[in-house]
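2024-03-11 09:14:02 DEBUG pipeline.ingest accepted 1 chain
2024-03-11 09:14:02 DEBUG pipeline.ingest length=269
2024-03-11 09:14:03 DEBUG pipeline.predict start
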Amino acid sequence: MKSKPQTTNTDPIAIFDSGVGGLSIAQCINHHLPNENLLYVADTLHAPYGDKTAEFIQQRVNEIAYWFIERNAKAIVVACNTATVNAIDQLRKNISIPVIGVEPAIKPAVNLSKNKKVAILVTKATAENQRFLTLVAQYSHNSEVIIQPCPGLVELIEQDKKNSPECELLLSKYLQPLLDKGVDTFVLGCTHYPLVKGIINKICGANVIIMETALPVTEQLQRQLALHNLINPSDKIGTTRFYSSKHSDMQQALFTHIWQQSLQLNSYP
């Protein structure tokens, strides 16, 4: 039975991820929809989702979604590729407000690749997910699409080591063999990965295309809000409230560093 929350167009948009990766989506939403109020939850206590079971991910997604609904969220953005492929279908069946997920930009990547060799950087859980594999098969066409799991990368980003030699070494290990195979287009299939896009660019060079999903997700959110008459008519700048399931001084510093302005991090739940 779908819940029927009474939402209005001034209610907040809810955004969540296993950690800080979804902030790359939240920043884009905040930039393009500055009058909207946002709620952001990082389920850092259970990050990364990439090594969790589908059942566990669904349980966390449902718990967080219902917490958002209790706070009158008018739409939910699942700003996590792993959570999207493992849990979004069942979530949409259970709640009635718009739910926007993150799909890797496979189709445009295939269209842009000159060598017809594309690599998708993902978590282990996404790499093994049937919904994701079906999507890859659907859009591969005449191109070679290589799925590259990146174990350990989310953990380094969550530890604020994204600019460390350790992170660059790990990325080189994953990227260099793909470059050697002639891959010229990379899809960032995890919302954490845009936070290390600078290092990816450094390793890959200027002739390689890097695809991310923040703008397409934001545009889909705008379409859904318009469709359901939920766009905030206010001309005031909206507020953003941040929550983490592993509240700490380090988390506070990490959020502030990524968001690039001072903020108050609250404990979830």
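2024-03-11 09:14:41 DEBUG pipeline.report The chain has two domains: 13-102+215-267, 106-212.
2024-03-11 09:14:41 DEBUG pipeline.predict end
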